[in-house]
Amino acid sequence: MRLTLLIIILFVGSNCSLTQANKSQCYGTTAQGRIEHSVKLPAKGTNFVSYSELAGALGRTYVHADVAKIILAAYDSLALSHPNKAYKYAETGLKHGGKFKPHKTHQNGLSVDFMVPVTNPRGESVHLPTHAFNRLGYDIEFDNNSQYKNLSIDYPAMAAHLVALDKAAKQRGFKLTRVIFDPQLQPELFKTPLGAYLKQHIVFSTKRAWVRHDEHYHVDFAIPCKP
Question: Signal sequence: where (predicted)?
Answer without folding.
Answer: 1-21
